[in-house]
Amino acid sequence: MKYESVIGLEVHAELKTKTKIFCGCSTSFGAAPNTHVCPVCLGLPGVLPVLNKEVLHFAVKAGLALHCDILPFSKFDRKNYYYPDLPKNFQTSQFDLPICLHGYVDIEVGGKQRRIHLTRIHMEEDAGKLVHSGATIDTSDSSCVDYNRTGVPLIEIVSEPDLRSGEEARAYLEKLRSILQYLGVSDCRMEEGSMRCDANISIRPVGSDTLGTKTEIKNINSFSGVQKGIEYEAVRQAQILEDGGTIQQATRGWEEAKGITVLQRIKEGSSDYRYFPEPDLIPIEVSPAYIEAVRKELPELPDVRRRRFQTEMGLSAYDAALLTGEKATADYFEETVAAGADAKVASNWILGDIAKKLNEEGITMVSIPVSPADLAGLLQLIDKGTISGKIAKKVLPEMWNSHKTAEAVVKEQGLVQITDTGELETIVRQIVAANPQSVADYQAGKKKAIGFLVGQIMKETKGRANPGVVNQLLTKILQA
After folding, report:
1. Cα end-to-end distance, the chain, whole Å
2. What residue numbers bound the domain in which 467 lies?
3. Helix or strand or coil: residue 214?
4. Which of 20, 219, 370, 385 is buried deepest, with most CB atoms within 10 A?
5. Average pLDDT over residues 384-397
6. Are residues 316 and 339 both part of a single domain?
7. For residues 367 and 396, is the Cβ–Cβ distance under 8 A?
8. How far are the Cα atoms of 134, 332, 354, 376 from residue 359, in angstroms, in the given order?
């Protein structure tokens, strides 16, 4: 490989507060355009902003969880630029004295652990949203502006250029989302824009320490988009250098449908934004006592929970990592086990049948219609021998759609497993008598023939026969 990628990410996470950063307007998603606005967030003359204390609380909490230094003195600044979705013509952000410095996120890619260092975390307000009449701004006759999102609180998490591939960038984002969700400071729903990512990428010859000219891919709203965008941009830059050209520092957009990045504008430097301290907001001072009080609020984080699932519940590293990736899934698993399910069996069902149903319906674990207690009830019916695992796979969709317990579904549909040896032996002998060729194959040494006979018996009993009893009876009859 001739070149290596050098990647840094700027992640904007919308904080899960009820009101905006500097006013009392609601932050709820999906309201009619321009209904969650007021003179403060619209930047009308004569208004004064007041910092929402919960924003500071969440920012400090995120900083501590990400191993940052919390600055005892920080301030807000005005970042000056003009764009239609920015009603004040400046964004209130933090520049030289952010709330958090340094920190790191540990990731694992391809079995290798890597530590991605952070530059900073700062607080800022979000801009509004342009709603284009066409698919993109280039194909639109007009654009409208919805200012509901203006003033929604954000933290921007800026990494060092430690990432080396699109795959690593995706792993970093997934880990960051997981931590923020565990903290309860953001829901990180990329599809709603509450977590967005800008990727800075350059390439350089392998072995070189010199940084190349970077481009920035703006506002990517999916993990796959981040990975694909970075991979495309690395190839694009390499091709330019191979052709004898030079890389232009610029902002580019990711077009998901075409799988390409497109030029948006020549990149500004920090001097172009003419930062200066926000005169309407006093500086922020946090005491050591406040920081320690917030530290005590930190929950069990994903890595710690993953290790506990391995040591206390006997799960594999792979299964534990999948279960703890999202807090809602880990909570659901623990509640299922607490309701009486075996940990390994519960893990298999949650990562298998449950995950498949969630994907089919396009919902997350937060919206699952089967409670942990009801899933535990289903798994206990299997353990008791009341139903087979095969029948359980038919019961789950009924529970999903009807919101009934497994016991109720089994009773209503007569799905109790047949374990009576006498009843089953009669059916087994009928199937054996009806399939002489399979019997002959089995007796000739083709042991797989027994699988066909088991299938016929299960078909005859509509899946209700106890597989263990069936195999015992078949073996006894065929070897008689």
Report:
1. 66
2. 421-478
3. coil
4. 20
5. 87
6. yes
7. no
8. 30, 16, 9, 21
Instruction: Give pLDDT, residue 454.
Output: 73
Cβ atoms within 10 Å of 436's Cβ, excluding its own: 9
* pLDDT tens figures, 149-163: 999 999 999 999 999
Distance CA 449, CA 442 (A): 5
Distance between CA 170 and CA 110 in Å, rounded? 13
> What DSSP assignment string belongs to 81-142?
---TT-TTSEEEE--SS-SEE--EEEEEETTEEEEEEEEEEEEEE---EEEESSSSGGG-S-
- Quick count: other Cβ atoms within 10 Å of Cβ 237? 22
Least trusted range by pLDDT, from 72-86, 198-212, 281-295, 453-467: 453-467
Per 3-state DSSP, what percentage of the chain is helix, strand, and coil (rounded to 5)? Answer: 40, 20, 35
Residue 262 lies in a domain: no
Orientation angle between helical segments 327-338 and 372-384, nearest 10 degrees: 50
pTM of the model: 0.83
Q: Are 233 and 203 in contact (CB under 8 A)?
A: no
Buried b (16+ CB within 10 A) or exposed e, 246-276: ebeeebbbbeeeeeebeeeeebeeeeebebe
The CATH number assigned to the domain holding 436 equals: 1.10.10.410
- The pLDDT > 70 percentage for the chain reads 94
Task: Indicate if the pLDDT at residue 480 is higher than 70.
Answer: no
